[in-house]
Amino acid sequence: MDSNRQSSELRVRKNLLDLSEVEVSDLRQAFTLLNESGEYQKFASILVHWGHTQQNDLLFLLWARAYFYEFELLLQSVVPSVTLPYWDYTSETSRKDGLPAIVANPLTESGEPNPLFRGEWREPLHTFRETLPPPALAETAQLAETAMSFEDFVTFSTSIWKTDIFTHIWLGGSSRSTATTAFDPIFWFSHCNLDRLWDEWQRKYDDYSAPASVESADLKPFQVDDNGTTRSLTGADVLRTAELGYTYL
Predict the structure, then answer these.
(1) Structural domain tally of the chain?
(2) Which of 36, 108, 151, 242 is buried most, with the most CB atoms less than 10 Å from its CB?
(3) CA-CA distance, 202 to 48, in Å (whole number)?
(4) pLDDT tens sequence across 103-148
């Protein structure tokens, strides 16, 4: 992360369902360009080697926030107008309709391959999309509601993790394995929602405090340019979305 890339004007991350046609087109273009250059595959593999994915790992939310932030910068390196949207799997619409069409359909409206449906990998991946929303999404919404009621960071973090696991199970296919999940575009949108829920929780309990060990922890392999000196990104660097230059709508 380069501190010089932050702006006083917050970038807005939107719900997938609220993207305009132009925003959808730009997002697809960004994914296509990153896939063609091989940068997408390189970045997705970071999760395999560095990711914090266990329930009791208190760096789970912080490392993920840094990961998505860096991925958003990667998207913007090819299409500057793009921000990372979220799929709100806790919403009534998701419980009723399942995945939004722009990620559920293998083809775009014009009949072209949809880069938001599946990613590219060195081995063929079998992308599976659930067509009927099962009870798991309703359970996920309930888990999220319960997690949001906890006032301390540790309990919230370990509880909101469960919504992520339920979503991975529901999505199926490559989403069920840490080795392949980040190669599936839906990974970024569902996890962006996890970050949104954390941001919402932070606003609700503004006076919360994270353990000192969490704030001081290095979020490898990410780095920050701190007044000309490169150092490891820490938990304290990513505690607030506004300090990273984005917000949710």
Answers:
(1) 1
(2) 108
(3) 28
(4) 888 889 888 999 998 644 444 444 444 444 556 678 888 999 999 9
Query: Which domain, by its residues, includes 221?
Result: 3-248
* Tens-place pLDDT, residues 3-36: 444 556 899 999 999 999 999 999 999 999 999 9
Global confidence as pTM: 0.86
Residue 221's domain is classified under what CATH number? 1.10.1280.10
